[in-house]
Amino acid sequence: MAQLTGFEAETLQKIITSTMEQVSAMEAARGRVEDATQTIASAAQAQAGTVLRQRLTEWQSEYSDIKNKLDILNGQVHTLLAQRTNTDDSTSSSAAA
Length: 97
Hints:
Keywords: Coiled coil. This protein is mainly α. It has a domain at about 55-85. Helices cover about 95% and strands about 0% of the residues. It contains one helix and no strands. The longest helix is centred in the middle third of the chain and has 91 residues, at about 5-95. About 0% of the residues are buried.
């Protein structure tokens, strides 16, 4: 195996040092990307929770509106049934008399 000259050894050492610095920088960048990804994921979960709470509130409001309308319809049906019963009773009384 051939011996490296001083210049070659120095150049090789510079390349190794530069490569190690780049590896360190890349590892640090990867750590920052992982942290940012976690932050984004947490923010997305929080936003999803907010959206779900908003939708739930909207659905509860819609349910309440529908329930109120059904209660009104139910009251109207009972009124109509009572009127019909009264009409039937009056008709029966008139027929009997």
